[in-house]
Design a protein that fits this description.
With 327 residues, the chain is mainly α. Helices cover 77% and strands 2% of the residues. It has a single domain, classed as Orthogonal Bundle (ABC transporter involved in vitamin B12 uptake, BtuC), CATH 1.10.3470. The protein has a two-stranded antiparallel ribbon with strand order 1-4. Strands 2-3 form a two-stranded antiparallel ribbon. Helix 2 packs parallel to helix 13. The longest helix has 27 residues. It is globular and about 50 Å long.
């Protein structure tokens, strides 16, 4: 029976794969890059392109984690706070206590995964009505703990192994960008070549029908939110590598950029629709837009407004697409 549900979810993905749905984000990115190339001589240079790749890496990692809850018609508002608590715990272990930096990395990723798992448990075992509630709670709890255990003070002076992910280059290419590509390839295999990945799409298509078909919905949701938390921890590791410091207010508002990247990349808030590479394109669009606006000396206030309009437009397209499904 679960095979039938998976086939139906695949049919919904195929239905969503019209030309605009499939290539709209890529076309938008090409148009944006073309316009910025015309407006600024400094945009299409090797240094600036590599800078964009580096700048986009943190949001790209958060976004691929965020894709999973959104595919199940959920959301994870806690990723920014999970990032903060993960890196503060890494700092306490590897800097304050002087323990092995590789242990610090394990702690960073482990705390992220544990907090994500907690989100999944609250959603499935405590029967909270919507992930908005459980992840909103985790967002505040994790942020509060990060501030309390550090006295709101930053931690600096991380060892080279921790800095590697954020500040190393392979030739002209940032290692963080290579890491993003590897992670995205793994997630593409996970979502498209495994039964768990197909069940994620099926749950987003219709959770109750998926449950009745024999899919262990609770187990899948716990996996989804655990992976989202793990990606927040990994994004935090890259962030610390870039700036060689961790601070408890890190990641504030980052969940919004991650959500925006997923939706701009063609995923649906209604669940069951979205792709790995579309999400990467969405994260790249946000990074390119911010970079281009900086090159054009657009003020930060106007940048927020412009990016907000792009997000609203993407959500509106999602609503129109959802209406077309019902016809």
């Amino acid at each position: 029976m679960s095979a039938v549900i998976v086939e139906k979810s695949e049919a919904r993905k195929i239905k969503s794969n019209g030309f605009i749905s499939k290539f709209g984000a890529l076309i938008g990115l090409i148009i944006l890059c073309t316009v910025l190339t015309i407006l600024s001589d400094n945009f299409l240079t090797v240094d600036n392109v590599m800078n964009i790749a580096r700048q986009s890496s943190i949001n790209a990692l958060l976004a691929i984690g965020m894709l999973l809850p959104i595919l199940t018609a959920g959301i994870d508002l806690s990723v920014g706070s999970i990032l903060a608590l993960s890196i503060m715990m890494m700092g306490i272990v590897s800097v304050n206590h002087g323990l092995n930096p590789y242990l610090g990395i394990v702690v960073c990723l482990g705390v992220g995964a544990l907090l994500g798992w907690t989100n999944g448990i609250m959603l499935t075992k405590l029967k909270l009505p919507h992930p908005f509630i459980s992840t909103l709670g985790t967002m505040n709890i994790a942020r509060g703990i990060a501030l309390i255990i550090t006295g709101a003070a930053p931690i600096a002076g991380f060892a080279a192994p921790i800095q590697f992910a954020g500040n190393q280059f392979v030739g002209p290419v940032p290692f963080s960008f290579i890491l993003v590509i590897v992670v995205y390839i793994l997630f593409d295999i996970f979502l498209n070549r495994t039964s768990t990945g197909r069940y994620i799409y099926a749950i987003g298509g219709n959770k109750e029908t998926a449950r009745l078909s024999g899919i262990n919905v609770n187990k899948i949701l716990i996996i989804v939110y655990t992976l989202s938390g793990l990606m927040a921890g990994l994004a935090g590791l890259v962030m610390v590598g870039r700036v060689n410091s961790a601070f408890p207010l890190a990641g504030m508002g980052y969940e919004l950029d991650a959500i925006a990247a997923v939706i701009i990349g063609g995923a649906s808030f209604f669940g069951g629709v979205g792709t790995v590479w579309g999400t990467l394109i969405g994260a790249t669009i946000i990074a390119v837009l911010r970079n281009g606006l900086n090159l054009l000396n657009v003020s930060a206030d106007f940048q927020m407004a412009i990016i907000g309009l792009v997000i609203v437009a993407a959500v509106y397209v999602d609503v129109l697409r959802q209406r077309s499904f019902k016809k």
